[in-house]
Design brief:
about 280 residues, alpha+beta, seven-stranded antiparallel beta sheet, three-stranded antiparallel beta sheet
Length: about 280
């Protein structure tokens, strides 16, 4: 059954006001756990879309980071009442997008603010290696597209092949989200400082994610290549527009903790190319 949109919502001042509320419908449509995301498990990078795994990569993954949230000095906060279980499809019990207060979708808020939350205090939990930690886990959220040249883990009996996403034009590649968990935050910060020293942001370069040989997933971040003069403007526009803002935190909060060289990327980086230098 379809209901025709009435005239007063199609034209005139009321229609303009109603159109401004469209963002609420966008938020509703993006509030499921179908946010395209990156999961880390078994020394593999796994791309998940619509709740289904669509590609796997072993040890390394080259990406273009288009956004990092929340801002400087703030962290995403995530707490599971019964602990995070690998492969879980339920959102966390309580979570914060900005590390200031619980997200609007949370129904079991542990505190009105993160600063006063008992789950956010050191010693409120014990880590897997037996050391005091916080029950509520800190992370940074990154939004990215795959760079060129990523070779995915093939099905049994098949040869390694270039993944479908890396074959697409940059504009058509899927935007993925990922949580950088506490184990990788130091390396992530160091990568940011290295880029800052060069006067550049992550949206103009290829960042290589390297999976370390550890009991729990831990990443290193390496500056792998600069984007060319055609791709860089497209990347910077996405970074400016921040289209991921329509997504709910619930979907991405699920991605809790859990090589050979490739063509098309230089093995050693020269200085910042001319098209990225400030004139």
């Amino acid at each position: 059954m379809s209901i025709e949109l009435p005239e007063h919502l199609r034209t005139g001042p009321l229609a303009e006001q109603a159109a401004k509320a469209l963002q609420d419908a966008q938020s509703m449509s993006a509030s499921s756990n179908s946010v395209p995301r990156l999961s880390l498990r078994g020394r593999e990078f796994r791309l998940v879309e619509g709740g289904e795994e669509v590609a796997r990569f072993r040890d390394i993954l080259d990406v273009i980071i288009l956004g990092v949230e929340p801002g400087p000095g703030l962290m995403v906060k995530t707490w599971y009442k019964d602990g995070y279980k690998s492969g879980a499809k339920e959102p966390p019990t309580c979570s914060s997008d900005d590390g200031i207060a619980p997200a609007a979708w949370v129904t079991d808020k542990q505190s009105q603010t993160c600063k006063t939350c008992p789950k956010n205090t050191f010693g409120s939990a014990i880590s897997p290696n037996g050391k005091p930690t916080k029950a509520c886990r800190d992370s940074k959220r990154v939004w990215f597209k795959l760079a060129d040249g990523n070779m995915e883990v093939p099905p049994p009996g098949q040869q390694t092949q270039l993944c479908v996403e890396s074959k697409k034009p940059f504009a058509d590649r899927t935007l993925y989200g990922a949580n950088i968990t506490v184990a990788s935050l130091k390396a992530f910060s160091e990568h940011g400082r290295a880029l800052q020293a060069l006067g550049q942001g992550p949206a103009v370069c290829v960042t290589r994610l390297v999976m370390l040989d550890k009991e729990f997933p831990e990443l290193e971040f390496k500056l792998q290549a600069w984007l060319d003069a055609d791709t860089a403007p497209q990347s910077l526009k996405i970074a400016s527009d921040r289209p991921w803002k329509i997504y709910s935190n619930a979907g991405l909060a699920l991605s809790g903790p859990e090589g050979s060289s490739r063509g098309g990327l230089p093995t050693a980086l020269p200085g910042v190319p001319e098209h990225l230098k400030q004139q």
